[in-house]
Hints:
442 residues
Amino acid sequence: MQGTKNLTEGAITKQLIHLALPIVGTSFIQMAYSITDMAWVGRLGSKEVAAIGAVGILTWMTNSISYLNKVGSEVSVGQSIGARDEDDAKGYASHNLTIALIISLVWGSLLFAFAHPIIGFYKLEESIARDAVEYLRIVASAFPFLFLSAAFTGIHNASGLSKTPFFISGAGLLLNMVLDPLFIFGFGLGTAGAAWATWISQAVVCVLFVYQLKRRNKLFGGFSFFVPLKRKYVLRVFQIGLPVALLNTFFAIINLLMARTASTYGGHIGLMTLTAGGQIEALAWNTSQGFSTALSAFTAQNYAARQKERILTAYRTTLKTTSVIGLFCTFLFVFFGNELFSLIVPEQAAYEAGGLFLRIDGYSMLLMMFEITTQGMFYGTGRTVPPAIISISFNTLRIPLAILLGATGLGIAGVWWAISISSMLKGISAFTWFSILQKKIL
């Protein structure tokens, strides 16, 4: 199939690594946008970090919604490629882009219009809330770029071309790194400067994807980006992508509630710790998610081609790799938590609070790898409901568990233990569920 790579033949480990490494790199690049913003804004103070951190949870929710078309593309297009059906590959690619644009316009408009009451939920100081509203409205207007880029990324991953999103996202990050200090300090825009730097960078990324597909590599012989929606494609895209979007969106909502709980126990330092600490935790999450996405794309093609043994070998190989990553992150977070956090916010009170979060969270890293890797297996076979059930169930547990542990005298540490314990339970449940259903699925 024109412009794509066949993942149903050849050395499994080599294909997984070649597919996974650019995806991991792309994940780190996407994470680096937020970390770059926080690192520069952190020089202004912890209150400014709290402002963009409050919006960070909303942008996390936005990224979660965009998974509908990112994962929808990876699985629907990937399975079409594996079945050698070029017409379906074109149809699914076009529909994912069209749906992504519609959702982004609706969602962005809602956040822009209701920015004040949404930020008011955090009950922040007036100056912090004002900065957060301004930041939110700027980034919300860039959501069409973000959603379309997510769908473009999914299409390329499904085609075995994960290097393309890596290089395009890398160009966006470099631009963001240059614009952040220029806008924040050079133009004196403060937190708004970080938002405008992100806006411009995401716009450039989207334009580069369009150029790539229209001029450099016309996948499937070329296809229309936006088309009248057809029931067949829409239903399949939502069947695959909606559970993933819901579980990730629900996860973000739970973290919104956890942020309020953290703010209750620890003030703006508690909120800052959760949001900035989550960015550091993403070192582990994004690495494993990259391998999981590669496994999903690999599985999608091989599942359609009925290559059972290749799928199982890929799963075992990926699980070994992510387990090593998990153990390394446990060591890093438990023993060097303060030092890591101080790279984001150099205030002593902030990095000591952050170090406590990372130490407690570090104990869950290995089992978190189990959950994320197994998600890739479920997604690749088109079964996105089991991971959604697991994630929603145990993430919901975080709220009462945090309140319970906090009330026992642990205070803010109780909130961090609720996060760590629920992550462990998710990993155990995902691995067990797949082990039980393996023969039926494959």
